[in-house]
Design brief:
Number of helices: 11
Number of domains: 2
Strand content: 5-15%
Oligomer: single chain
Radius of gyration: 19 Å
Order of helices and strands: EHEEEHEEHEEHHHHHHHH
CATH architecture of the largest domain: Up-down Bundle
Largest sheet: 4 strands, mixed
CATH topology of the largest domain: Glutathione S-transferase Yfyf (Class Pi), Chain A, domain 2
CATH class of the largest domain: Mainly Alpha
Bound molecules: glutathione
Length: 259
């Protein structure tokens, strides 16, 4: 079996996808990292480790300004950038060659390929595997849109709000249609399309922590009417989050959200 290591800030719903899949699929994963605010105090590498201010002065050549999501500088080794050219976390490393795998949905696929339970990624049915990929891609498009939104929520612009709302409606319209035809997103059983959806959507719901900021701009929560606008998707989300394999990993992340 290929060993898989993931480096990231933690907790991170984008890492949960892989953790939940590994648990259901019966494999071990190595997950290392720290709270988001501590990521500038880590050396970003296969052998990621915490660094002191003294270390940082010796690691000036690795210092690079954060592109997305962190404040200030990060310390990424040349080996890290070699394997992770976009320089993002979660950062997966697979196999003896410690090959870099990036984008949480791709890390998720790598994990699913190693699982004993192959049905999570379509089993022998390559057509189903391709359909699962389609849902994962649709999920990434939504995820990128709402990443910008969540990062801007302290002082949101109408432009970002409207873009995210359109992306939310497009993605959820599709899921609602899919779930009117089958009991899981890609077909009649649980796959990584469901796992990725639940984790990304849990993260999107964090807009609910910015009610005051949205109110100041006279903007309602994008997900305000989620249960009534998309009842099948809402029930599916609820059912997934209540599954032990999910709730054990998600912990108290969604406790504030009424379901
Ligand atoms: N779509 C990517 C998102 C990854 C991403 O954008 N990560 C950000 C943190 S939220 C990052 O690593 N930024 C590194 C930097 O700022 O240099 C995924 O699902 O893995």
């Amino acid at each position: 079996m290929n060993k898989i290591r993931i480096f990231s800030y933690l907790p991170n719903p984008r890492v949960w996808k892989s953790i939940i899949t590994a648990k259901i699929g019966g494999i071990d994963l190595e997950v290392i990292g720290d709270k988001p605010n501590n990521m500038p105090n880590w050396l970003w590498d296969f052998d990621a480790k915490p660094i002191t201010d003294e270390d940082k002065s010796k690691l000036k050549s690795f210092e690079i300004k954060s592109k997305r999501g962190f404040k200030g500088s990060l310390y990424k080794t040349d080996e890290f950038i070699g394997q992770h050219p976009f320089g993002t976390v979660p950062a997966g490393f697979v196999g003896e060659g410690r090959l870099g795998v990036f984008e949480s949905n791709s890390i998720l696929r790598a994990v699913a390929r190693e699982c004993k339970d192959k049905s999570l990624y379509g089993g022998d049915d390559l057509n189903l595997t391709s359909r699962i990929d389609s849902f994962l891609d649709a999920n990434l498009v939504f995820s990128r849109e709402f990443q910008v939104y969540l990062l801007e929520l302290e002082d949101i612009t109408k432009y970002t709000y409207e873009r995210t709302k359109a992306s939310y409606e497009f993605y959820l319209d599709g899921l609602e249609k899919a779930l009117s035809l089958s009991s899981f997103i890609a077909g009649d059983h649980l796959t990584i399309a469901d796992i990725s959806f639940a984790c990304e959507f849990a993260q999107f719901l964090r807009e609910g922590h910015y009610l005051e900021q949205l109110k100041k701009k006279n903007l309602p929560l994008i997900s305000k009417n989620f249960p009534t606008d998309y009842p099948l998707t809402f029930e599916h989300f609820k059912a997934l989050c209540k599954k032990e394999e999910f709730s054990n990993v998600m912990g108290s992340y969604l406790d504030w959200y009424e379901m």
